[in-house]
Amino acid sequence: MGPQFSKHSPEKYLAFLAQEKSKSENEDWYLWALIKPFSMGSTLKKIDGPVKIRDDDSALNDLNFSWHPDKDIIFYIKESDDGTDPIFYYNMDS
Fold it and tell me: Under the phi-then-psi rule, with left for phi > 0, alpha for psi from -120 to 50, and beta for the rest, what region is 25?
């Protein structure tokens, strides 16, 4: 859901959300990245999860994570058990 190319290096990174069963048997959303999406040797990397999504109409929603405009960094909100739902970031280059 919601695939987005990196704003800084669109040829290098494509991020998206995928739903999968968690330990609690719920369907949660996890953040993934496709590295070098236009090459035959592209690789898939699971970044983190479960990720908080905005609402039930998730298929039309591209605001669940965001790329930094000048670096290959993804910002997202991680779902937490205590309800604080902290903001995290993942630097693709380190």
Answer: left
